[in-house]
Amino acid sequence: LAHDLEFPRKPNDLYLAQGSEVSPDRPLMQGDVLDGVEIAGLEDGEGLGVIVTHACSMRRGAVLAPRLRIARVIRSKMLEQADWTEGFSRHMLLPWLIPGNLEHHFTASLEDAGIVKSESAMQLPRLACLSPFGITLLQQRVILSASRHIVPTSDLHLVNAPVLAELEMLEDWREAARKNGTSYDEAEAIFDELMSADAGDGSLRDDLTEPARRSVVRRQIVDVRRERFGS
Amino acid sequence: MSDQAPTSTSTEIARPARTETTVRQLVSAAAGLRDESSLLSDDAKDLHRRALLHNLDTRTAPHAQRPVVDLLQSLSESGFAWSEIARLIGVSVPALRKWRSGESPTGGNRRRLAQLLAMVDFLANDYLVDDPASWMDVPISSQAPLAPNDLYEMGRLDLVLDWASQRLEGHEVLDEALPNWRERYASDFEVVRWLDGQLVTRPRER
């Protein structure tokens, strides 16, 4: 039912990429699991952490926000489907986090969270990125933990969709820039200018809020990217 | 007059029995016709869908012979996001990245890529869908977030084509794809554009 806590059926439902398959060109996003994170206020040293800052608050335009909220991730007992729907209401479950090791499970304690500077977070190794559905599962549990509301993931995804569409274009843009020898910072600034420019009928970023316009924006960005970076 | 009256009365008394029989026969005949036409309609729908899928298979074959990098590039140029292509053919985004770098997919995955491109051709050329990648992303009904790409992911390519040809209403498409879609997507929340221009989720007004 729409008002139950939801759950993934297999690793691919939860994770977009894990381990060595995480693209270095992918910008940081909610649901990324980082290693070696020191979280202000926890005083437990370095460890694993998952970014819980909402997808829509991760960036100002295309540029990463200066600070991110990260929750501590720790080893857990074997997690089962019932744990998603009946327990762990203050946790995000991260089963199968380590690729190839289905026995090792982790959870993020959403109460053990704090601020981390983005420039530090960007330097840390990423163990995994959550899939679009995985991000909505995280958001569903963050909202439950903070407000005792259960919001269907399908509604949460509608809000995330424009941001994730832009993120994917930015990842391709950064990849093309890197191959062309352009820095990420410079590439992001150009990308942001392109997405924000308003020719009188709204910007490309505004267009992404309309599902029917997203593919049009993608084609435009691909054309500019090829012209500018050659790939 | 007095001689004719009994005759007339006699005739009127006999009439209801004949009328009842005639109506019963009419109802029976109409019911038979309706059942036959319903069966015929189901058969025709089934035949039409099988013909459409056969047509899609025929269009898939030439694409399946093209290099995978070309297939991916064509899909990208159609406006599909990588994550969307991955979802529609049932693989991970990193798998797609490997194919873009020159690794070979399995025969089954190559065929699924070719089939997606064939679907794009089909929608554009036979059903005059102006921008298939966009069309696949637009919800079928305002009451649920399900779009043609969700039907495609479920393997209901027949319903994607039926929806494109407008042979079914949106709710009929969804009823066939996911009979419990109304309950599944019933929500106390709604997604609206907020003051800052971004989308937000908020409790639905009662």
List the helices and strands and how they pair.
The complex is a heterodimer of chains A (231) and B (206).
Chain A: H1 11-14, E1 15-18, E2 33-38, E3 46-51, E4 59-60, E5 63-64, E6 67-76, H2 81-86, E7 91-94, E8 105-117, H3 118-121, E9 126-130, H4 132-147, H5 153-180, H6 184-196, H7 204-207, H8 211-229
Antiparallel strand pairs in A: 1-9, 2-3, 2-9, 3-6, 4-5, 6-8, 7-8
Helix pairs in contact in A: 4-5, 5-6, 5-8
Chain B: H1 4-64, H2 68-77, H3 82-89, H4 93-100, H5 107-126, H6 132-135, H7 148-153, H8 157-164, H9 170-177, H10 181-184, E1 189-193, E2 199-203
Antiparallel strand pairs in B: 1-2
So what's the overall shape of chain A? globular
What is the N-to-C succession of helices and strands of chain A?
HEEEEEEHEEHEHHHHH
What level of helicity do the residues of chain B show? 55-70%
> What characterizes the major β-sheet of chain A?
7 strands, antiparallel
Question: What is the strand content of chain A?
Answer: 15-25%
| Oligomerization state | heterodimer
Query: What are the low-pLDDT stretches of chain B, counting only 5+ consecutive residues below 50?
Result: none
The order of strands across the largest sheet of chain A is 1-9-2-3-6-8-7
Shape descriptor of chain B:
flat
Q: Write down how many β-strands of chain A occur, each being a DSSP E stretch of 2 or more residues.
A: 9
Largest sheet of chain B: 2 strands, antiparallel
Instruction: Give the rounded overall mean pLDDT of chain A.
Output: 93
Structural class of chain A: alpha+beta
Tell me how many strands of chain B there are.
Answer: 2
From the N-terminal CA to the C-terminal CA of chain B, the straight-line distance is: 72 Å
Query: How much of the sequence of chain B is in beta strands?
Result: under 5%
- Residue-averaged pLDDT of chain B, rounded? 89
